[in-house]
Amino acid sequence: MITLTELQLKEVVILQSGRRLGFIADFEIDEQTGSITAFIVSTRQLRGNLFNRMTETIVPWGHIVTIGDDIILINEWTDWQRKLPLNINN
User: Which DSSP symbol is given to 8?
Assistant: First the structure.
């Protein structure tokens, strides 16, 4: 069994392209079943962004291919759900 804290230490990588999304920041949990339905990955935008804003990507749980020692491999899909950029000045 793996804990939520251990999942948050693993980097999320898209299997088809090798693109690194970032690390898990939060989870969406079904209140009635208690199961995880999606996880939220925080991504720092570096290209063309003066203030390096953070954005969040919602990844459905069903897109996980495998959970390894250091990374979580996910399948790419076309309808990425994005949340608004976070207002963090780091």
Answer: H
Token pair 């088809």 in the structure block, residue: 16
* Predicted structure pTM score: 0.75
Instruction: Give pLDDT, residue 1.
Output: 82
The Cα 56–Cα 23 span in angstroms is 10
The CA dihedral of 72, 51, 46, 6, to the nearest 10 degrees, is -10
| Residue 40 bridge partners (DSSP) | 26, 58
C-alpha 13/C-alpha 41 separation (Å) is 11
Cα separation, 76 vs 16, whole angstroms: 7
Question: In this predicted model, what pLDDT tens digit does every residue of 17-51 receive, in sequence order?
Answer: 998 989 999 999 999 999 999 999 987 665 655 56
Domain extent listing, the chain = 4-82
The hierarchical CATH code for the domain 4-82 is: 2.30.30.240
